[in-house]
Each structure stands twice: as C-alpha cells, then as structure tokens.
Amino acid sequence: MKNNEDSFITDQEFIDFLSFDELGNMTDLSWNASSTTNLSLNSLNTLPLGHDDIKKSTIERLVKSLHNLNYLEKEIPQEYKGPIGINKTILDSYTIKAKKLYEFLKSKKHIKPKNFFEYFKIIDEFLSYCSPHLNKLPPDINDLDLTDMNLFNNFITVKKLSKSKVKDFEKIFVLYFCKNNFICSINKENTIETFNHVVIEQHLQEVKKECTIETYHRKKREYKNFLTWLTTIYVEFQSYTLNSIPLFLITENHLEEYKIFLLRQFQNGKYKKHSISDMFYYVRSLFGSLYQMRAIPNDITISVKGIKFEKYKYRDLPNNQHLTEFFDSVMCYTPEPLQFCTAYKLMLYLGLRLGEVAYIESSNINFNTNTISVKGKDDKYDLLPLPEILLEDLYSLIAFNQKYIFSNKPQSFKKDLYLYYKLLSFILNWNFPGGVHIFRHTFITRLSKLPNIRPQVIQYLSRHSRPDTTSLYIHRNDNALNSAINKIDYFKGE
Predict the structure, then answer these.
(1) 442: closest CA among 345, 370, 371, 360?
(2) Is the pTM here over 0.85, yes or no?
C-alpha cells in the first residue's frame, strides 16, 4: 500500500469535523423519534463523502475514540481447549433421558465441531418434534418412548429433511431399529431433478464469492421457487423442466404477477412482509444480474418495483460482559485464536463486514499512519483509522508474510468465521439476531453514543452512501433515548 503519511496534517480541521457545527458550537447526534426504537433520518444529514475529508485531517482524536468504544476486560488466560472443546461443552450442558441418543453424541465428541453440531441439532429438533406427540418435554423423552417407528418416518416427511440430513438421521434411526426398516420418505423436492439451470449457475458462482453459504442457498431456493411457480401457472412454460426454461422468455409481466402472488401469501399469513420482500428482491436482482451478464436481451426489472416494508427493527445488542465472554471463548476454542480474535475485533471496532475481514491483504495496512484500506461494496476502497488495540495483533499477523492477513484461502476463512461465531454464540446462550453482523450493529450504535460526534462522521465510518441506511444500524433503548432528549434545553434563548 502506498504510504499515506503525507496525506494527514496535524491541525484541528478533522477534530472540528467530528465535534463542531458550522458556527463553532459543539454538536451532538440529534434525535427525533416517533417511538423509542426509531431513529430519525434527520439526525444523519447527508454530507459529500470521500477520502478528502479524512486525508487532509488528523485522526488522533478519532483513533482514541474508537479505541475506547468498547470497554472490554482483557482476555483472561485460560486453558486452551481447541475446537473439540466445543463438543464437550455442548455435551456437558445437554441433559436428556434418551440414553441411546446421548451416548451417540458422546461417541462423536472427537469429530469436527461443525459435524458434531449437526448431529446435536437434528437430535434436539427430533425430540422437540416428538414432544407434543408424546405429551412430554424433550428432555424427559426416554428410549422406550422412541420405539414408535412412525415418529422417525413422519419427522423426515414433515420437516422436509435434505438428503444430507436424512443420511445423518439414518444413524439415529438404527439406534432403535434395524437399518432395513428405514423408510427414506424424503419429500418430493429431493426426488425430482436437481436444480442446476446452466445460466443461473453461472450467476450463482459469482454470488458465492460475495455472500455466506446460507445466503447462497437461500437465493438458489428462491430462484427455484420462482421457476416452479412459473411452470405451474403459465401454460407456455409447462413443457419445460426447471433446468431447461429459456430465461429470455420471462417478461416484466411475469415478475409483476409473481409479486402479486407473494403479496397474497403475506395477506394469507403464510409469510411475513419482510420475508416476501427478500424473496422478490432475490428474484428481481437475478434478472438484473442476468441482463448485465448479457444472458438475456432486455432488462425486465427497470419498471418493476420491490415490495416495501418497514425496514427498521430494534435489536438487543451484546453488552461489555457479553463481548468479553465471547472473546475469551474465541481464545479458548478457535483453531487459531490470534487470527480469529483479531478478525472479530475488526468487525467490532471498525464495523467491518465478514467478507471484508477475510479478504484484507497485508498491503492494506499502513503502520506509519495507523490506517487500513478496506475494499467494501462495489469494489470501493475506504481508508479508516486503526484503533490502537488492534495494532499489535495485526503487526504479528503481517509478520507471516502472506498475501492475505488471516489466510491464503480467504473464502474458507470467511466460512470458518461464520461457523465459529455460530458455535460460540450457541454455547454462550446468545440470542442476538443477525448472526456475525451483530458486531457491525454494535459498532455503529456505540459510535452514535460518543459525545460530540457528528452524524456525518458516523455515516462515513459506517461506509454507507445514504444516511437512512446508517440509521437502520442504530439501536437506542428507552433510557438512552430519554437521556438524549433530556439533554435538549427547550427554553434556551427565552
């Protein structure tokens, strides 16, 4: 990375940008909410964003603010248990009377935690399914209760288990019955032709590089649902299989009709509004992408509007104790504690996204200026100040002299970051929504609570092009909002 030391000057300009309005008065984040969980967009006034604002200014004050953003206790040195330790922790806290199931899990405690967790989840889900049928709580179900073969076969059908889960579940079945009695009554989705439309697969290969594996599978599922609907409703498509549909025959009218279909699904109570909005967004964006790929001749999405819904949703966020326990667990259980701990801290202290962290290169770090260049959405690079708390660990990682800081297989590291967040949040009993993205919500919310920080700076550090996007990440509870309101002197000047 090019040395940016000369790009900064040690005057008061950037501090003014952070803390003062145009008249020289100290500024604070203004609040104007219709409820205690909604942030007024007026508090995030648009300011032209670009590197010029930061490159011409000192970042010392900002670095200090970011360093103090999270008052976490230093990780307490403890016995390193490694990934396998996760299995034991889950097993030790799991109490069930079905001894065969417990012993099965116990026999798997030395396998990879990802595979162990899959076995754990399917057993836990199966017992939850059996609970109302047996009129017992899941932990109270015993081996004798599970001698009804119909419970197993119906579970497969009702839950629509995938092929891989059916294969795992078969190992549970043979604990109670002969393998020859296993009736693989998989849902029709698993018995029909595999969905792998050639053109859509080309699109999905690009999608896979930019999102989590869960989002990838969800998009693929929504594409399939749309084409299935198409072949069911329209006579002209009924002669095609899902993999042979000529996508150029699909028109704007088809998208509009599908939107109406989804809205009816919402009105009938089958889906929530935000769910159908996401479903339609995925399908609409698919055809926009196909047009850019020149896979279809016309952009049929131009006049097709999405399904609107109230995007803002208040979230509970982890407090300092939660975060301290999380990072202690990272040091205790992850395969490479330094890498994982530093990666998660980049999400918490700078609000970086999962993919942005995984693909950070050594050349993106400048220790002369304590800055990091982050490649975000639309391949845009943003220059951010590095909090002091991250410097030593980053320097240690760069000493390995590899292209990427964390792993020369960034996509695999990205999956591992997601996996271990999922595992650690489970053993810590976290119920915070949003997965690993909760760190970004926490960063932006805590940033908004810093005294005398201007909304434009919050938007800049959040790396959002629109203030209304930043507002969706700010979650203030009743007390915080009341405190902000009480700071206002309504009678000033009378």
Answers:
(1) 345
(2) no
